[in-house]
Amino acid sequence: MTGNPLRIETSGGVLVGFVVLAVVVFELRTVLGMLFGIDVSGVVYFPVALAVLVGLLVAENALRSVGSKEG
Amino acid sequence: MNEGMVSADDGATHGDLERSVSAPPDQADVDRTLSHEEFDPKGTLALILVYFAILVGMWVFMYFVEFLGNGLTVVG
Amino acid sequence: MSTGSGAATFVDRYPEEASIVRQAFFVAFVAFGLGALFGVIQALHRTDILRFIPSTDYYTVLTAHGVLLVIVFTIFFLVGLFQWAITRSFDRPVEDIRITKAWLALMSVGSVVTGVTILLGFVDEVGISADVLFTFYAPLQAHPLFYAGLAVFLVGTWIAGADWFRSWLAWNAEHPDDRIPLQAFVVLTTMLMWYIATIGVAVAVLFFLLPWSLGLIETVNPLLTRTLFWFFGHPVVYFWLMPAYLLWYTVLPKIAGGRLFSDPLARVVFVLFLLLSTPVGIHHQYLDPGIAESFKFIAMTNTMFLLLPSLLTAFTVVASVEHGARQRGGTGLFGWLRALPWRDPAFTGMMLAGLMFAAGGFSGMINAGMNINYLVHNTLWVPGHFHLTVGTAVALTMMAGTYWLWPQLTNRRLYSRPIGLLQVVVWFGGMALMSNAMHVSGLYGIPRRTAEPQYQGFDFSTAFGSVAELNVQLAIGGTLLFVSALLFLANLAFSWGNPTTSGLGQTLPPALSGPDDSPRVLDNMRLWAAIALVLVALAYALPLGAIVADSGLFGPGGDAYPVTVVLNSVAVTAERLTASVGATLADVGGVLEVIR
Ligand code: HEM
Ligand SMILES: [Cu+2]
Prior knowledge:
- The complex is a heterotrimer.
- Chain A contains 2 helices and no strands.
- By secondary structure, chain A is an all-alpha fold.
- Chain A has helices spanning 11-36, 42-70.
- Chain B contains 2 helices and 1 strand; from the N terminus they run E-H-H.
- Chain C is mainly alpha-helical.
- Chain C has helices spanning 10-13, 15-46, 58-90, 97-119, 144-174, 182-213, 222-250, 252-255, 263-276, 293-305, 307-327, 345-368, 373-376, 381-410, 417-443, 467-495, 525-551, 566-595, and one strand spanning 500-502.
- In chain C, helix 5 (144-174) runs antiparallel to helix 6 (182-213), helix 6 runs antiparallel to helix 7 and helix 6 packs parallel to helix 9.
- The longest helix of chain C is centred in the N-terminal third of the chain and has 33 residues, at 58-90.
- Chains in contact: A-B, A-C, B-C.
- Chains B and C meet through strand 1, helix 1 and helix 2 of B and helix 11, helix 12, helix 14 and strand 1 of C.
- Bound molecules: protoporphyrin IX containing FE (HEM) and copper (II) ion.
- Copper (II) ion is lined by residues 234, 237, 283-284 of chain C.
């Protein structure tokens, strides 16, 4: 991103994107329950969802640092 | 500190402007300037269509399943 | 000392006006802090997670929460923001600062009187209370001071509006050929709407509720005062929303690095709100007996028309943000979203507020349907809905807007932008939890406005999960919201300790398609006000007439609850006693009759 002083590669976007994604994943259980009548136990759902989200965050972080080394 | 006044350019690098004030102080140094004619908000259209699809889907569910699917409630 | 690159700030150019704006914001944020505290108490109490107030005090808390947040917080922020917008966009000082100070003082005194009257409900010894919730439906009765404070507050807002119209007239005399600047246009149309809307509460309070609570009249017609309340109650939701829209239309595009997509479209939207927001109030009364179905149907139809300006807004605002993103180098059908200044709490706060508003649009559509409304009426779904709209779209935009406005009003930087970002994100997450739990609980039939929504020998049946789980969700969400509110207030408090800095000023760019692309008739305030009045008369003359014809101006009679005025209460207790003694005697007589 040379020559574009206004666009800093922000971690802000990643944070916001992550939170929005987390909310969507959270609502997904409601959608499953209300729309499809699938009752997933929260005790199972939330830890799994959290693990997936954290996994994504770690992966994203790794990819980004690789990307910036190349750039 | 020095009479309570410091300058807005207190050694901030250009990129830091985004942090020191809420937005780029002026629109002069954007990447490119898009006029009304050049700008076609197709991303907006796409987002709104996605929203609409979700909205209609949920409404249909609420009406046909939740509302019509529930029996009469007789009070009293 | 001054080597800043930015322009002069608002406070540099208009120090007196900036001080008014800051004072109005101060009152707003005090109310916000108290309201948030009461909010978390409710969230913990009604879910039975933590109960440290007696359930009998729940309604005092709930009344304080509602009134402090949707009357004091939102409207004080509104008048501050509107004063900024008028002064900034006309680029002229107020005509007479004493008047400006006077209306702010009136509003403040009124709010304090009403607020203290509500809070006295905690102190039983005083015998003053106003546990009537922010809708103050009769036969719930408050101490006269509650209504009196409200009246004083209203008068303050009316003078504020007059003050802004006066600025417009003065500006117009000097610029007869100019179009009204967009920000001023928003203020003027919104205040016209407010004048029309407040006719309803003013009549309800001054002619019925206040005299009734003073004991000057014996009874009121509950359906009449309720209908008058909702005459005001729907437009007031747009009154809350218009400051958020003002920020979305005029500040957000700038923060995004772009320009407003279309000024003419914006004007059309605000005119539509002026015209349509009042003749729909009956949609809050779908379940009220005593109002004919046909009137409810008309209200529903009008409500559906109101979707139009909201959709236009979604389009215009998102397009303006997209314009910013593309100017910042964003590309792709959705990829432009990545080019936006997400680290800026002002930007992110407004965007998340807009996203939640979109979700609130869905539950709003359910509320608005005459038949499907039966599914959710008076359940927790309804607070679930409006915490997305006024509780987030409006409140979060106001907080985000404050992050941007703060330097303009004080010449001080914000204490911490990262904390600001954390704050808006926590609000978003907390509200997602709380509102989701409320919506789902509502579908299971759990009522709102209930301290202990648990009943002997009855369990709510759930489609998935459990009520206990929803309760935990609601409580966690409410707690996160409270933490977010504290972060916001603390950030501002610490910002006050920052040194003043010069050159923090920011300008707002003109729209891509300017006002000259629209017909001049859009600026004709008289015309729109007249049409709005005609529409209101059409929508309300018949229903109000029917209500009065049915049961009279003062209703069929009945007791007020609770009876707050001591003298009154003695009299009424005595009356009740005689009545029940009489009834018992009659019963005894009847029994004797039968036996004999
Ligand atoms: C700290 C954040 C907040 C929390 C934890 C919270 C919590 C709650 C809860 C649990 C209720 C439902 C009580 C019941 O029906 O029994 C409620 C009602 C309500 N809330 Fe909030 N709220 C918060 C912020 C807000 C904001 C920012 C607004 C508006 C600007 C707002 C406006 C209202 C209104 C109008 C009611 C209805 C009062 C009534 O039924 O009379 N709340 N709140
Ligand atoms: Cu409404």
